[in-house]
Amino acid sequence: MTAATTKRRPPSQTVGVIFLRLQCTRTEAYHVKVKNLHPWEVTYHQAVAIQERLQKKLRSKPLRKDVGLVAGADISYNRKSPDLYAAVLVMRLPELEIVETQLVKAKATFPYIPGLLSFRELPAVVRAFEKLKTVPDAVLCDGQGIAHPRGFGLAAHLGLLLDLPAAGCAKTLLVGECKRVADRRWSKADLIYKDAVVGTVLRTRAGVKPVYVSPGHKIDLEGSVALVRQCVGKYRLPEPTRQAHLIVNEFRREGGPPLRGGPQ
To answer: Which of 97, 151, 179, 200 is such that its CA lies 20 to 30 A from the CA of 253?
Structure first.
């Protein structure tokens, strides 16, 4: 990931930073509840089995209400290091104003395996969600929803854990094929995998590479595309995940204090 400097945050924003090992026991009261669906310290085959089991629990449906607050999440790390840096922020629509940010530094307990990245990344991400004082109406992830070999990408996994509408907006294609997308802004094409439509290839800026949108949980494809469109500013990526990316890379550059076996 390319690091960049973020804008100074106004005093009205809530910013929190925590440092932990993922194995620690947590007893604090939080506003965003995370379901205990499975253990995190698992083998490759156990992780695949968990994905196949939980995929059956996903629900595709229209959003029940307008989205006024949307969360964006991103994570930064060196594949050769166990250190993970996660950022979650909440933005107000339509202003695209950041109202809260939470940061987490953690140690990974699962290796880097494409298709199973949620088992490496989500323990830190959900910990940041747990610290939010603002409950979002929906979540956007820099990753896949059901456009995944087992139909259970990071956005699907996160949505199920949080029991919130969650959609993926990925920068690269993981599975599937599509027709060429016209160069005009908002041109799109169906993303097809195993004879099913699993997402939309959407061009958010004229002449710039498209993004790959797919629903995760408690949102359908139409709603996922609409949510991404609401969150796109003048750049290719939606602002919640773009800003989370900038913030988490700044956080990673700073490094944070060393981990010492528990919450800091």
So the answer is: 97
- Summarised one tens digit per residue, pLDDT across range 43-52 is 999 999 999 9
Residue 198's H or E segment, with its range, is strand 196-202
Tokens of 246: 């900038």
- With a threshold of 0.85, does the pTM exceed it? no
What per-residue confidence (pLDDT) applies to 48?
97
The angle that helices 154-162 and 117-130 make with each other, rounded to 10 degrees, is 40
What is the distance between the alpha carbons of residues 31 and 33, in angstroms, rounded to a whole number? 6
Look at 165 and 253; give whichever has higher pLDDT: 165
Nearest to 69 by CA among 43, 45, 100: 100
- Band the pLDDT of 120: cuts 50, 70, 90: very high
Cβ(124)–Cβ(89) below 8 Å: no
Given a contact cutoff of 8 angstroms between Cβ atoms, the answer to whether 31 and 14 are in contact is no
In DSSP notation, 38-84 reads S-SS--HHHHHHHHHHHHTT------SS--SEEEEEEEE--TTS-EE
Under 8 Å between Cβ of 95 and 240: no
Q: How many CB atoms lie within 10 A of CB 117?
A: 17
CA–CA separation, 130 and 164 (whole Å)? 13
Q: Is residue 151 left, alpha or beta, with left meaning phi > 0 and alpha meaning psi from -120 to 50?
A: left
Distance CA 165, CA 159 (A): 6
Q: Which domains does the chain have, with CATH numbers?
A: 14-143+152-165+235-254 (3.30.2170.10)
Q: 12 pLDDT exceeds 70? A: no
Q: Give, in degrees to the nearest 5, the angle at Cα 208 between 193 and 169.
A: 45
pLDDT 10s digits, 77-92: 988 888 999 999 999 9
